[in-house]
Amino acid sequence: MNRDTIIQELDYKAVRSSGAGGQNVNKVSSKVVLSFDLANSLSLTDEEKALAEMRLASRLTTEKILILQCDEDRSQLRNKDIVTKRFLEVIDNALREVKPRKATKIPRAVIKKRIENKRRQSEIKQSRKRPNL
Questions:
Q1: What are the structural domain ranges in the chain?
Q2: Which fold has domain 3-95?
Q3: What is the value of pTM for the model shown?
Q4: Phi then psi for 115, rounded to 5 degrees?
């Protein structure tokens, strides 16, 4: 994946932000909506597209478009930077290879300690019984 070419494929749209902010919210389009067409991307290989499509299935539209938005800041430029960084993190995580988990054996010392504790607890409970006369 080439970051420069993938950034060139992004579509940005500025819209009015919601929430508190008074006249600034009513006048300024500071919210940035990023959209990325995964199916028609030229910077990703077919294998990368398939992997990203599988891992990002819940975030993609029916047309295989990833949509991210940011309205954290009052500045449109900062929101654009934030949403671009967020997009790159999402794509990196989707394309990262997951290491298979290695099953580990329980150490002998741990098993021995558990059995010793069981034996000790058993002796304590045995000592609570009424003696046989």
A1: 3-95
A2: Double Stranded RNA Binding Domain (3.30.160)
A3: 0.71
A4: -65, -40
Residue 91's Cβ-side half-sphere holds a number of Cα atoms within 13 Å equal to 25
Tokens of 118: 């069981």
Torsions phi, psi of 96, nearest 5?
-70, 135
Q: Phi first, then psi: what are they for 42, rounded to 5°?
A: -95, -15
Region of 63 on the Ramachandran plot (φ > 0 left; ψ -120 to 50 alpha; else beta): alpha
Three-state SS annotation for the chain: CCHHHHHHCCEEEEECCCCCCCHHHHHCCCEEEEEEECCCCCCCCHHHHHHHHHHCHHHECCCCEEEEEECCCCCHHHHHHHHHHHHHHHHHHHHCCCCCCCCCCCCHHHHHHHHHHHHHHHHHHHHCCCCCC
Token representation of residue 12 = 């940005």
pLDDT digits (tens, 9 = 90+) for 78-125: 999 999 999 999 999 999 988 999 999 999 999 999 999 999 999 999
